[in-house]
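Entry 12.
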Amino acid sequence: MISCVSCCLLFCLDANVHQLLPLAEEYQIVEVKKKCEEFLLTKPGSMELLVTAQTYGLNQLLSKCIDHVRTRNFTELQRDPHFKRVDQTNLIHILQLRVMDLETAVEHGRRSTNERDARLYGVISELASGYGNFCTECKSRKVHFFDCIVVRLLF
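Predicted 3D structure (tokens):
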């Protein structure tokens, strides 16, 4: 039977993967589970595959799906029809990763804001320091009002 299942696996995996996994689990055929996982790893991550991975102990697939699912917001996760089948431990792990991602984004935003504020402060300081150097008489930046009056009085 094992050679028959392995033979089918080579030719029919796409159509039969969800039938082969329960059989491989029940009869403890590690090689079939491994081949199924290798095949499923070629598929995009999803909540459905996450449930499949946790059901059959497919750890690489589980990691891939968790990485995919952690990018979705919580409302999107709840709307997924497979959400209620996600193990609580995996859900907690997903949410912890999501919080860490959000904290990283907030910190990056905070750093960007601080850098921008520092640049703006520098520009404002430069403008403010230059503002007092304008002569109200001739509008020259380098000549002070009193120097300008003296020069005008002399000529």
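Annotation: Helices lie at 2-26, 30-40, 47-56, 59-69, 74-79, 88-131, 145-154. Residues 41-131 form one domain.
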